[in-house]
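Re: the pair you flagged

First of the two:
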Amino acid sequence: MPKRKGRPVVHAATVLALLAGSAYFTYELRKDDQAKVPAAQTVTDNALQNSGKATGKQTWERLNDPARSVLRDAKGAVIATFTDGARTATLKGSSRTFTEPANTSTKVVTDDWVRLMPEPWTKGAQNQQWFKDWFKQYYGSQEDDVFAIAFQYVQGSPVKKDSAGVPYEGDAVFGPYKADGVDRLEQNDFYDYLGIPYTFRNGTTMEPRTERYRALDCSGFMRMVWGYRSRYPLMATDTLGDGLPRSANGMARSKVGVDIIKLQGPSPWYTRPKNIDTLQPGDLLFFKMDHRTADHIDHVGLYLGLDTEGHKVFVSSRKEQNGPTIGDKGGVSRIDGNGFYAELFRSAKRL
């Protein structure tokens, strides 16, 4: 993600002081203690809200825009949502609270659990054995989902290493400083964070760069969460291999997944979507932020849903915060209203 024109420079010493301060995040799983936190916010998709009816049993429903299958409980409430052509599923479960008090007062209380299915959804897939087996394993499961994994890289997250000593989770930075000591280097992928060579499915091997150890830029963060951790296929670059491309622009324009909000309007700035109510927790959000990147989309984040104030929020890795955040530095992490990111939001994809 490029440096924004016209934004004040934060000196390295200031950044280090901030990092050394009260830097922590809270990820709480609430089960028997629901009364102590605000209620989970509901989705704003009118089709989901208005079509459910109490039937006394679980029922499947087909909805359009996008084409998807919805599983409802006996009272008509949504249990799970599956979108045609996408592997992402949202399952209702225990309510959790995601916060980052060192950088924002924003609090996300959600009962949505975002997981990857082994195959893209198709109409009638609920009758196939692969889905029955997957749903039995993951509905009600408290195994880390995409949201839990994403928050394992925000400021103050504890480092965890595998048996080979490779740090697969823990506080990530956006990237090291450039020679000028002001701007930060981009193009920091998950293998840079890990510090190990990585061979992609097409046989391409990418080598980590020592100075970028524990660094993830915006798209590298998404590739860590969805690819290395959740096992979504990854391309080596924007052109080599198959799966999720390397850059935000490559992801936005890729044929993988389903375009929930399509890129519209004239380049290079395109236009802000007029309606964003079709978004679902777990969607990739794309932004056009800098004139220096020509017609490229230059930032990507993960949509979390509504915060406790009813705003649509996301998590992404940014230069200003120097890593993954739902914070306010450089712009509040909301895509509704008229804030910095809201104004520059352009499209969305469901993997």
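Second of the two:
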Amino acid sequence: MSKKEDSRGKKGSHQTELYAEVPSTCLPIVYSPEYNITFMGLEKLHPFDAGKWGKVIHFLKEEQFITDEVIVLAREASEADLLVVHTARYLNRLKNAILEGSREWSLVVATITEIPPLLFLPNFLVQRKVLKPLRTQTGGTIMAGKLAMDRGWAINVGGGFHHCSSDKGGGFCAYADITLAIKFLFERVEGVARATIIDLDAHQGNGHERDFLEDRRVYIMDVYNRHIYPGDGYAKRAIKRKVELDWGTEDMEYLQKVELHSEGALNEVRPDIIIYNAGTDILDGDPLGGLAISPQGIIKRDEIIFRAARRRGIPILMVTSGGYQKKTARIIADSILNLHRQGLIGEEAVEGAGPSHVPLMMSKSVSSGAMFSAI
């Protein structure tokens, strides 16, 4: 373990497998085949592409940017890991079915995922086929948080469940991975005292906003369509830099606002880490996002955020969050490839980077549809 952190944390926290050492030969890109939800076709009843994460990895391999050997394999978050943020009552509600006669009804999971037929399936299958993938993505985000501090950047190809808070899920978000990643860093990594969340998913990130409402260590910038899910006025009080968009916002206006406000946010408070929620549901034609950003606009948006982080020497963790069209996986892959071409991510961030220091390139000195809500 690094001198900066250990598996039990600075305050004698629980033992975790998520902060295990990662070989220096790996890129800080976290993924597991367990991310993908395939369940007798029922996943198709929600507009979310429940296999998009594997498609992103396929495209990155096709372009010869990564191989299986350099990917960091995500581990499933344990119950003890989840209890760092979640209440035992909430986790029990996810775990336990409602008994009626001889049937077990997975009401809570069916409500969170917005796939009503899950009600009629055996609870053990729902746990294995739906919640386990989401727990693995959550573990991936926590792992990527430590990797970002070690290497200067990290990407979890999944995660970004920004509608889930400590005691409530929704919008296909069952676990509060963003909150968990930040809390793990605060508890376990020396020198991490402030975090900035830049949430650019089309939907308001009400989950992490509720979790950090009274926490001055966390600065939240949120850019979202003001007219869609969740419209959580209470959670909005946590947003330090709020940018509300109208239906059909296009590239020019959007990118100007993203650049202006991300620069403003990072100039206002210098964090020890940026958590970047890079939802692709801003894409023109997305059934839930209601915005009109082009694929090129999404790629440019991600470049703006990574460039702002690198210019200031701030480690950055990216999660992929929402995106409800089949072509979003290709766009995510293209964006990652562009970040590499621009020199903002890649092997140069790994070479010479041990877990006890930040690499030179990142030196610390220097969402509603008619029927569905969404990540």
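The radius of gyration is 19 Å.

-B.
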